[in-house]
Amino acid sequence: LNFITEELKNPYKNLPLAILIGIPLVTVCYIFVNIAYFTVMTPIELLQSSAVAVTFGDRVLYPLSWVVPLFVVFSTFGAANGSCFTAGRLTYVAGREGHMVRFLSYISVK
Fold first, then answer.
1. Rounded to two decimals, what is the model's pTM?
2. pLDDT tens digit string along 53-62?
């Protein structure tokens, strides 16, 4: 998010707010997911599993275990979307600021 602050509305307020909400939220979710893994699965199952989340889904969400790989796909597409958007902005700004060739900063409105 800090690479595309020009795209934010009111970045001086929204960027710190996104950081202060996002990082603790992701940390808490990560801790709860790990607690769930250790509660449901034995350490031997965790070590032998090739995909712990899928094994967890098979055990807990048996009829809906296909949801776990689906959310992994959604996460992958979300990360790819963010990377493409950020890479384009970085190239544009680097061209505009003179760090790369100037024509990279040209934008077509059409």
1. 0.74
2. 999 999 999 8
